[in-house]
Amino acid sequence: MSSRSPVAAASVAAPFPPRRRPLGRRLRLAAAPYGLLLPASVVVAAVLAYPLYYLVRLSFQHYGLFQLVRHKGEAIGTANYAAIFHDSVFWHTLLRTVAVTAVCVVLTVVLSTLIALLLAELSSWVRLLLTAGLIFVWATPVVVAISIWSWMIDFEFGVANWTLTKLGVGNFTHHDWLANPWSGWGVIISLIVWGAIPFVAITLYAGLTQVSGELLEAAAIDGASRWRAFRDITLPLLKPIYVIVISLSIIWDFQVFNQVWLITNTTPTPDYFVMAVYSYVTSFKISEYGLGSAIAVVMVGIMALISVFYVRQMVKLGDVE
Amino acid sequence: MKTRIIVAVALAAALAIPASTASGGTTKASASSITVWLMSDAQNGWPTAVANATSQFKAQHPGVDVNIQYQSWDSVLQKFDASIAASDTPDAIELGNSQTAKYMAAGAFQAIKPKNYPNSSTWLAGLKQSCTYGGHTFCVPYYAGARAVIYRKDLYRSVGYKSAPTTYSKFLAIGKKLMKKYGSNSNFSALYEPGQNWYVAMSYVFDYGGQIAVHKGSKWQAVLNTPQAIAGLTAFKKMTLAFSRASKTNDEAHPFPSIPFAKGRAAAFIGNGWEWPYVFNPKGGAAPASFEKKMGAYPMPSHVKGKYLPTFLGGSDIGIPVQSKNKSLAADWVKAYTGTASETLIAKAGNIANSTKLLGVNAKNPALAPFARAAAFSWFVPSAPNWANVESNNPLKPMLTSILTNRASIKSAVTKADSQINKILNAKS
User: Would you state the pLDDT for residue B428?
Assistant: First the structure.
């Protein structure tokens, strides 16, 4: 017995060591996922983390043309931040950016919802036509789209003024759409929303196809109006999709740059400043790279807050499923 | 799984190989070519001068390519700054004479020895000064330009004026008659004047005795909020609103005034000498050749009898960035381009050449002589090193827009512009 027990112990233990012994291999297995993540992490670090680090570092420096030529900034602590927080243009720009974002997101989501509902009601070939139209808008590179819009609203030779005049809406000959910031922003916001609708509308339509027709039928039999059915059945079911498209739209619209920059011929007046434009103008037009970076850092901070909300919602949605 | 990783690594490696050879290729290419940034004015106005310089250079350096990249005034400084940051600057670059101070002060240009360059003993004083900083020369004068009124003789004649106006009151009288006769066509302008053409607006400011900014003690002070400057802007506003249907939110490059002029929508516009031939350029309006006989030019009269409205004495210089790796090749191209042969072509295209020796080139040309006459009364921007930043982020343009669209009184618009200009001019550089 006594001689057997070690054997038994050994035989019991025998399968154990082979599993346990190559600690190296176990570690390697545990490390494999991290290893797989490594290339992506390196890319992310190179294209995101390093520029971000550099941006933050720049925001604590005086960095003008003199410093640019020598590739060496001059540390000045938080002076850039003090300067922007005491700058009324900065606060106006921030408020304007928030307002523009809000208007764009609301318009995008409402119009896209209407289009999505329309898509669900259409016969299949009309739906195909409309979807193709949406895809064309989506596929138009933003710079091309802006050029086309610029031509349409051109002061001297634009088709918008010509058409409106011919239609008898009023005398729009030489109407300058950008002279008044309200009508100018009207044009820019239309342009942004026009470009943003396809993605949101198609995403929402995809969601709508998942809403069971039986539920809506049952509601109709119970005497619910279509609005009531939409509000109490469709909307709650689509909530996860709405959370995603609204968060993404906020993130996209908050950092709008091209539409404003190009439609104003790259010389926007302060009435047309949004955060991204203000940062760019400060950096590249007056060579105050440190100050421009500080504005960009504030913008990144605000975006990070919005993203935290977005990521939390995504995680919550994941938990439910 | 292991094989997948191997495949992935192999793929990544395969992708990396062409990438690294590609980057090797560009370094090699730069040794056999130089890159020159010129403004699109050269492309539109005197491409033959550029071609002439390049062929002269190639005869001297067979096998070296010259890569001319045309830039627009709107964005050239931003691109130049980006190239400095990347240590990948062009080998030679044209800058406006109001932009050079900033770059010389920052040490962005290689100092040059003028005696090595053609005609340097007769360089135009104004341009030479814009290339001098701290006793050294950092760029080569390229050309200068003055603005004059380019007009339609036939239209002026149709309202009873056989010759160009020599007084401001006559200029106004012609404009009024033109507007009366043709103004019912809402596209017609007696003088096409883009609202943000600050060169013309500031001409009025100087004509009424005003200035943009002055050096006081150790600081710069913008002085648009003075009775003289306000009087000038008031006259500018009155004239522009009465005679021009051009956009009030765009400048003289959007569109080029030559386009509405060529299309018959304007009886006149204020332009540089090179804008005369540009009227016939496909990009400048493509006027029919018969137009040439109908066209004339005259220096814009001042409200003071016997004087002209001071014109902005603009011009350009060419510098060699310190970061260029082909400085001596670049210098040879610049020598060819600013030498007598090319400069003669540049002058014939409607400009003032860089050397006093060549001032006679256009003396017998009735089209271009008025531009030279106009240069007798001129103004220039403040000599502050930061002035280029004012032009880049130009607070004068929105100021003019708000004045012309009545969004602000002249007084409040100039007060705002003054504070913006003060902030930029006095910023630490």
Answer: 76
Q: Among candidates A48, A77, A85, which has minimal Cα distance to A61?
A: A77
pLDDT at B129 over 90: no
In B80-209, DSSP assigns E strands to 92-96, 132-133, 136-137, 139-145, 147-152
Question: Measured between beta carbons, which residues in chain B are less than 8 angstroms from residue A281?
Answer: 393
Cβ–Cβ under 8 Å, residues B96 and B64: no
- Sole residue written with tokens 């019991």: A12
Task: Compare all CA atoms of chain A with the CA of B403 and give the residue at the minimum distance.
Answer: A179
Look at residues B144, B140, B145 and name the one whose alpha carbon lies nearest to residue B337.
B140
Place of tokens 């200009």: B421
**Binary contact (A286, B398; C-beta < 8 A):** no
C-alpha span between A218 and A214 (Å, rounded): 6
With CB atoms and an 8 Å threshold, state whether B393 touches A286. yes
Rounded mean pLDDT of B315-337? 95
Higher pLDDT, B362 or B112: B112
Beta-carbon contacts below 8 Å between A and B: 98
Reported ipTM: the value is 0.76
- B87: region left, alpha or beta (phi > 0 left; psi from -120 to 50 alpha): left
Least confident of A71-75, A97-101, A211-215: A211-215
Q: Chain A partners of B197 at a C-beta cutoff of 8 Å?
A: none
Q: Are A205 and A119 in contact (CB under 8 A)?
A: yes
Tell which residue, A155, A201, A160, A181, has the closest CA to residue A100. A181
Q: What is the mean pLDDT of residues B274-290?
A: 89
Q: What is each CA distance from B84 to B87, B412, B417, in whole angstroms? A: 5, 38, 30
pLDDT bin (cut points 50, 70, 90) of residue A172 is confident
Contact (CB<8Å) A176/B248: yes
DSSP designation for B116: G
Partner-chain contact B102 A287, CB within 8 Å? yes
Contacts of A178 in chain B (CB under 8 A): 249
Specify which residues B35 forms β-bridges with: B67
Residue A81 CA, chain-centre distance (Å), reads: 25
Q: What's the gap in Å between the CA of A140 and the closest CA on chain B? A: 24
Task: Look up residue B323 and give its amino acid.
Answer: Q
Q: How many CB atoms are closer than 10 A to CB B218?
A: 6
Question: Does the distance separating the beta carbons of A179 and B248 come in below 8 Å?
Answer: yes
Rounded percentage of chain A residues whose pLDDT exceeds 90: 56
pLDDT at residue A5 greater than cutoff 50: no
What pLDDT sits at residue B393?
Answer: 82
Phi and psi based region of residue B61 (left: phi greater than 0; alpha: psi -120 to 50; beta: remaining): beta
B118 or A320, higher pLDDT:
B118
For residue range B39-79, list pLDDT tens digits in order: 999 998 899 999 999 999 999 999 999 999 999 988 899 89
Q: Extract the runs of DSSP E, i.e. beta strands, from B251-332.
A: 268-272, 295-298, 311-312, 314-319
Instruction: Provide the mean pLDDT of chain A.
Output: 88
Q: Out of B77, B87, B247, whose CB is closest to A176?
A: B247
What is the share, in percent, of chain B residues with pLDDT greater than 90? 65
Least confidently predicted of A94-98, A117-121, B152-156, B355-359:
B355-359
Contact between A32 and B1 using a beta-carbon 8 Å cutoff: yes
Cβ contact A39–B12 (<8 Å): yes
How many angstroms separate the CA atoms of A228 and A235, rounded?
10
